[in-house]
Amino acid sequence: LIELLRAENDAILDPDRWTRELSTDGLSQDPRASSQFIERIILGRAARRRRERPACERLLTEARHYSGDNLAHRQEVDYERATTLLHCAAPSAMTTNPLNGQDVRSVISIAAQAVRSSDRLERPHARAQARCALALALVRSGQIEDSFAQLQLAEQIVQALPSQEAHRLAAPHHAPAAFV
Q1: Global pTM exceeds 0.90
Q2: Once rounded to an integer, what is the mean pLDDT over residues 3-27?
Q3: What spatial distance separates the first Cα and last Cα of the chain, rounded to whole Å?
Q4: What is the rounded distance in angstroms from the CA atom of residue 141 to the CA atom of residue 135?
Q5: Can you tell me the distance from the alpha carbon of 50 to that of 155, in angstroms, rounded to the nearest whole number?
């Protein structure tokens, strides 16, 4: 698991590695549910960056299986699923079908569930992230004012943090323009 976490960290920090497939070959298997959950989330994120939506959805389904009754894990799966639905559309489809064939209400519902769960967990990073995903879903559905309200809430959450933590959360990631 540590090797996989390192590979994911390297991929995030180096835009040239963003779309590379992370390999689990040769890695020792950790049978614990929490380790299997983390592995599926990491591999799902890598699949999403490559725009491989079916693979990402399969990995998120597997991650949900390993999440059990853990609210934090269920929240993360909901957030990752909403993010996948929002980011795996072809750029040309964005104007005609902004949610890539998904029912607008279902994507908003998934993102809203991630917001509710993150609020219950009281984790500022998860709360801000979930609200940003919900805001994007609302923009894609044409609900601009509601989206703006979610972004304002996310900003308030980040501003309430100590300055160093707020700066870390607000700092732009070094993603290639094609993936932003």
Answers
A1: no
A2: 61
A3: 27
A4: 10
A5: 29
